[in-house]
């Protein structure tokens, strides 16, 4: 029976632990943080929910069902009218992650409530250090998020240009059934408000090397909260957290595994650089890691199979998103997009699918090209994106 250590019990680690334990592996998952709220929008798309139907009942789980997306100043994309129903929910990460972790434990994974302080890859095994001492495993899954220790020890940390900084406020005591989005020119990106059952997660995000710090970004968010009145009377609790935001070229050379180890979720850099959807990729890659570990004849073969799968099933699509990012956040395109959203049901349908994680970047171009206004914009957009990656 293979011994697998998993560092981190977020969606990637909990899902890997669940699938491995069910397949008969001996699984130890290390994380001292639970129960905890993770700085995150908490937007969970239908495709992510469909991967965890055994742990999360989308109908009864405490969550906000998103009915509309409001693009400032006044374009509304109705998710229900576009036939998507509960294609996007917003959940508290304390509740969502706890449900996934409970499922892994009931499948047989052992939780060690300790922070991993060091990882040493040896010829035949991996050593894992915590304040409680050293343990060894045949294979380690690094599912320890954007600041991954496993990544720092076995590959290299993300460079500054591979990260974005997300910062904002949890607004306790306010909620809604619509997400709000405002495209911003400086920094190039958007401000969002994601409503959870008892608070709003409001934030802004900028590439870490964009020359704008977390304090300035948070001040920008605070000004937006004041101007929109979206969180009137709520108690604001600040947060700040990195999100991997890789360039297209990074996905081509992505190092996701080696003998005795692999990286999943944020630790591997698997986040959509435009929508910042990472929960789906965390859950999916946790599952791929488990399949590679139990489905191949050696730890070397597992590492190869996992790397190939990550590049094939996530890397290509995320690279496409990275190529489009620069154009997507251009102010001129943003203005055109809002106007098009007001006027065209076809564009609203595309945007609803993008928000719900149902629209691939591979076919996005062709769907937009079929609409006149955005078809013209596409040319400018793709020209401006050519320098990326
Ligand atoms: C502000 C913000 C908004 C976001 N909004 C969305 C959104 O709306 N929808 C979406 O899909 N994605 C969103 N994301 C991205 C999403 O949060 C991540 O992609 C997702 O949480 C990745 O899951 P993970 O399991 O890889 O890592 P995490 O969820 O980060 O889990 C990592 C776990 O590892 C543990 N850990 C870390 N170091 C150690 C150690 N040394 N030893 C033991 N344990 C350790 C941590 O305690 C944590 O529990 C957002 C991110 C941010 C920052």
Strand content: 15-25%
| Number of alpha- plus pi-helical segments | 12
Q: What coarse outline follows from CA principal-axis ratios?
A: globular
Structure ligands: flavin-adenine dinucleotide
Coarse structural class: alpha/beta
Q: Mean pLDDT, as a whole number?
A: 90
Distance between the termini: 43 Å
Q: What is the gyration radius calculated from CA atoms?
A: 21 Å
Estimated helix fraction: 25-40%
Can you list the strand order of the major beta sheet? 6-5-14-15-16-13-17
Q: Your description of this structure?
A:
- The protein is α/β, with parallel strands linked by helices and 389 residues long.
- The chain contains 12 helices and 19 strands.
- The chain has helices at residues 11-22, 46-51, 93-106, 149-154, 214-228, 248-252, 279-295, 299-328, 331-343, 345-355, 361-369, 372-385, and strands spanning 3-7, 26-30, 43-45, 64-65, 68-71, 75-78, 88-90, 110-112, 116-121, 126-130, 133-137, 139-142, 163-172, 178-184, 189-195, 199-207, 235-244, 257-258, 261-263.
- The strands form 4 sheets. A 7-stranded mixed beta sheet has the order 6-5-14-15-16-13-17, sandwiched between helices. It has a 6-stranded mixed beta sheet with strand order 8-2-1-12-19-18. A 3-stranded antiparallel beta sheet has the order 3-7-4.
- The longest helix is centred in the last third of the chain and has 30 residues, at 299-328.
- The radius of gyration is 21 Å and the shape is globular.
- The mean pLDDT is 90.
- The structure holds flavin-adenine dinucleotide.
- The site of flavin-adenine dinucleotide has 37 residues, from α1, β17 and α7.
């Amino acid at each position: 029976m293979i011994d697998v250590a998993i560092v981190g019990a977020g969606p990637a680690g909990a899902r890997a632990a669940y699938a491995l334990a069910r397949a008969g592996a001996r699984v130890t998952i290390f994380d001292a943080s639970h129960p905890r709220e993770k700085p995150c929008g908490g937007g969970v798309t239908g495709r992510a929910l469909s991967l965890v139907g055994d742990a999360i009942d989308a109908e009864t789980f405490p969550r906000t069902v998103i009915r509309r997306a409001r693009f400032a100043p006044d374009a509304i994309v109705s998710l229900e009218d576009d036939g998507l129903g509960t294609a996007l929910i917003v959940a508290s990460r304390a509740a969502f992650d706890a449900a996934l972790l409970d499922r892994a434990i009931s499948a047989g994974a052992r939780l060690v409530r300790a922070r991993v302080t060091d990882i040493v890859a040896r010829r035949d095994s991996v050593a894992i250090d915590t304040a409680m001492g050293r343990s060894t495993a045949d294979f380690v899954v690094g599912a320890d998020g954007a600041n991954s220790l496993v990544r720092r020890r076995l590959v290299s940390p993300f460079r500054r240009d591979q990260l974005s900084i997300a910062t904002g406020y949890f607004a306790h005591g306010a909620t809604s059934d619509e997400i709000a989005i405002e495209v911003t020119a400086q920094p190039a990106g958007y401000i969002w408000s994601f409503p959870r059952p008892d608070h709003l997660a409001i934030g802004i995000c900028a590439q870490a090397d964009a020359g704008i710090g977390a304090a300035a970004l948070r001040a920008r968010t605070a000004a937006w909260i004041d101007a929109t009145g979206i969180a009137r009377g709520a108690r604001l609790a600040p947060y700040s957290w990195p999100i991997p935001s890789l360039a297209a070229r990074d996905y081509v050379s992505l190092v996701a595994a080696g003998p005795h180890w692999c990286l999943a979720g944020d630790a591997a850099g698997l986040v959509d650089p435009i929508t910042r959807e990472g929960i789906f990729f965390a859950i999916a890659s946790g599952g791929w890691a488990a399949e590679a570990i139990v489905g191949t004849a050696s730890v070397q073969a597992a590492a190869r199979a996992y790397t190939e799968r990550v590049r094939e099933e996530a890397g290509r699509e995320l690279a496409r998103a990275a190529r489009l990012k620069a154009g997507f956040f251009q102010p001129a395109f943003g203005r055109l997009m809002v106007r098009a959203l007001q006027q065209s049901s076809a564009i609203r349908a595309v945007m609803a699918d993008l928000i719900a994680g149902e629209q691939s970047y591979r076919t996005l171009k062709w769907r937009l090209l079929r609409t006149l206004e955005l078809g013209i914009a596409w040319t400018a957009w793709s020209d401006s994106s050519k320098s990326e990656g």
